[in-house]
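Can you give me the bound-state structure? Components:
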Amino acid sequence: MDKLKKEFGKIYDKYIEKIFRFVFLKVDSKEIAEDLTSETFLRTWKIFQNGNSKIKNISAFLYKTAQNLIVDYYREKSKKQIVSPEVFPFIADPRQNLEKKAILNSEIERIKKALSQLNEDYQNAIIWYYLDELPIQEVANLLERTVPATRVLISRAIKALREKLEKV
Amino acid sequence: MTTEREVIEKIKVLKQIKPEKNWVFLTKEKILGKELTFFPFLKPVFAGSLFILILFAISFTFLSESSFYLIKKIIKGEKAVFVSEEKESKLELELANKKLEELSKIAKTQNVEKLAPAISQTKESVAKATQNLVKSKKVNKEIVKKVLELENKKKEVEKILGTKITNGEVESPIKFVAQYLIEDLENRSLSEEQRKTLEKAKEYFENGDFTKVIELLLLINNN
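Here's the bound-state model for the whole set.
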């Protein structure tokens, strides 16, 4: 059990920021993002400790679990995906001064808002390829598409985001 | 007109979104449990000794501004054997207050390595102070003051950490003191106005606002 805990501890450390960011970009608040991220890791851990052979690709498994939880969250709450007006008190680097932080927060809010107006595949393609820098093959696997089709999708997603950014 | 390259650069800004360090640490602890066995090859007796040594080293090096913190704690514990239960309650409350102050400092600096042992020691200290108080069943003005101080500090730390400091199984010291004061006043002859204040305090008690109960009842006591 200790070996499994140690192994999963490393997985947790490696993916916690990515999964939190992935969830946060799709929900209304930091608190909801924390709850869903925590549940993602808890569910994965339960399966992992009962024999991790069921999990072939841990990264894909975590993203899929998080995605399912987000879907469940909106289904249960019948909530529309809206962008929270809240500021981002948890943005790293405390050395930044308040003015810089405010500018950065406002820019993040703007991009988040534009991103949330795209369809789910476009959002995921952008997050996985450009933000989490996953290899194209892994993005293709997650999107359940071929690599060429994924490249086309990413290109279209960027164009769509550019258009949204000009409007927000 | 923004180019696609500029859009990609903008997306990278989102990398600044990061969860709070405290939350990351506490969530990991919740999922995987408190401690991992660092030396699984050691037999329990050796592991136990090693654990005590590590605990001593952590307390000695990190937990307090004073290097002699643990020694002071042991001395305090021994002293408490020879003092009255009332004084023991006061001592334990003072110790819990100090632990909360230290935990507050650690939480503000977001030092995750020091956080887990600090939370654990503070929980233990608050629980011990509460148990002593309940056991002694003696409440005086000084103890009320210490309990109110403890409650304020506890709320402050819980706000920073986003987690409860008290163990759910242990009664909170503020609840105990509020109940004690109500029961004490019920057995005394009170004026009409004082009786009304007591009834109001009981309502606050039912609603779980124990600080307000104590504030009201101290007014009766002072008048």
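A couple of observations. Residues 79-96 of chain A have pLDDT under 50 and may be disordered. The interface with chain B takes residues 2, 5-6, 8-9, 12-13, 16-17, 20-21, 24-25, 33-34, 37-38, 41-42, 45, 88, 90-93, 104, 107-108, 111-112, 126, 130-131, 158-159, 161-162, 165-166 of chain A (CB under 8 Å).
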